[in-house]
Amino acid sequence: MVRVLGIESSCDETGVAIYDSDRGLLADSLHSQIKLHNEYGGVVPELASRDHIRRITPLIKETLSTAKCQLTDLSAIAYTAGPGLAGALLVGASVAESLSFALSIPALPIHHLEGHLLSPCLSDTPPQFPFIALLVSGGHSQFMKVTQVGEYELLGESVDDAAGEAFDKTAKLLGLPYPGGPHLAKLAATGNPKRFHFPRPMIHSGDLMMSFSGLKTAVSLTVSQYQKEDYNDIAASFEAAVVDTLCAKAVHALKLTGIKQLVIAGGVGANLKLREQLTSVIKQQGGSVFYPPLKLCTDNGAMIAYAGAQKLLSGQLPVQKESFAIYPRWDLQVYSTRYKS
Ligand code: KG4
Ligand code: ZN
User: Fold this and answer.
1) Quick one: which of 142, 244, 261, 315 has the most CB atoms within 10 Å?
2) CB of 100 shorter than 6 A to ligand 1
3) Which atom of ligand 1 lies nearest, measured to the CA of 185?
4) Which segment of 180-189, 251-260, 319-328 scores lowest on mean pLDDT?
5) CB of 267 closer than 6 angstroms to any ligand 1 atom
6) Contact 193, 239 (CB under 8 A)
7) What is the pLDDT of residue 337?
């Protein structure tokens, strides 16, 4: 049995959770900084770091108390070491490394995207290895082949904007608050997705590469030609274009690899239209789709605690321990070499 405290502080959410390999998730606390950054229309890195500093210790105490456990009951401390905002990452990293030193238990630097792509394993119906993960967040749109914990192969990604970034930028064009994705989805629910035909970029490229920046330009042109009362139709038509593109690529990913299980991870995975349509097209292919529980789609400590526990259970420990580091830009495949079995 292992029991791991997970700390996430890579962007605008302080997440702390405790995962127990026998009993599952014991506690999962989150403090979102949405209100703090709202008036600036996006994340202000320095404000993010300062808020993580304020929140992290009370959140750890709260999480331990909810889980009814002590620091001395923990097997390891897992934390997001990258990619993300340098100052924000440093908060989680220094707290986790200090705790690990004080308690003489391992500190496990976790790749943020590994956390996301393993998060569907925390649902009641987890996928089995191998699976294809479609990772759609504010910073990434990638297809990964996941053979086992720590074995990831990048199959394709966006050549420009990430899907979440496209949602956020389009929402801004429509005058919606940050973070735009959920607001845009809400507005889209009242609109007609067939009214405007926006491009489905690279849909016939034959590979798993994607592009979302042209789509945003097309929306921008339309916005300038229409009135506010048309914005719900623009939002719905934009959402349909992103969802169609991701669905077509996902079907292609399963065909190319022969793998039948698709996992959706990252913030955009909370989009209900995407969930609905993907489930239906993948089913038609004889495959199945796995999602994290809705609240674990966006950033959280649970996915980091879970990834840390899986590392320990599979006997993987981080190499070199004289110092710790954070990695604001970090390739998932390079990250795998940070661990040895
Ligand atoms: O994974 P995440 O919380 O943070 C990153 O690691 O980037 O993803 C955040 C992204 C944002 O771009 C946000 O707008 C988007 O996920 N998002 C959504 C929805 N909920 C969050 N996009 C579309 N529809 C949603 N319901
Ligand atoms: Zn994330």
Assistant:
1) 142
2) no
3) 24
4) 319-328
5) yes
6) yes
7) 82
Q: What is the DSSP letter of 126?
A: P
- Quote the pLDDT of residue 205: 93
Positive/negative CA dihedral, 53, 138, 325, 97? positive
Tokens of 95: 């707290």
Coarse DSSP helix, strand, coil percentages of the chain, rounded to the nearest 5 percent: 45, 20, 30
User: Which ligand is nearest to the Cα of residue 298, counting in written order?
Assistant: 1
Distance CA 83, CA 332 (A): 9
Q: Tokens 């200090």 correspond to what residue? A: 98
The secondary structure element, H or E, covering residue 165 is helix 163-173
- CB-CB contact of 36 with 179 (8 Å): no
Q: Radius of gyration over alpha carbons of the chain, in Å?
A: 20
Instruction: Give me the phi and psi of 292, to 5 degrees please.
Output: -70, 160
Answer for the pair 196, 233: CB distance below 8 angstroms, yes or no. yes
- Report the atom number in ligand 1 closest to the C-alpha of 164: 12
Instruction: Give kind and range of the element (H or E) at residue 131.
Output: strand 131-136
User: How many residues are given for the chain?
Assistant: 341
| Token pair listed for 33 | 């900084």
Residue 28 structure tokens: 């999962």
How far, in Å, from the CA of 167 to the mean position of ligand 1?
A: 8
- Other C-beta atoms lying within 10 Å of the C-beta of residue 195: 15
Using one digit for the tens of pLDDT, what is the confidence trace for 266-281?
Answer: 999 999 999 999 999 9
- The CB of 181 under 6 Å from ligand 1? The reply is yes
Give just the sign of the alpha carbon dihedral 51, 269, 218, 154. Answer: positive
Closest residue by Cα to atom 20, ligand 1, is 182
Give the largest CA-CA distance in the chain: 63
CB contact burial 220-259 (16+ within 10 A = b; e otherwise):
eebbeeeeeebbbbbbbbbbbbbbbbbbbbbbbbbebbeb
Nearest atom, ligand 1, residue 266 CA: 1
* Ordered DSSP codes for 304-323: HHHHHHHHHHTT-EES--SS
Side-chain half-sphere exposure of 222, counting CA atoms within 13 A: 23
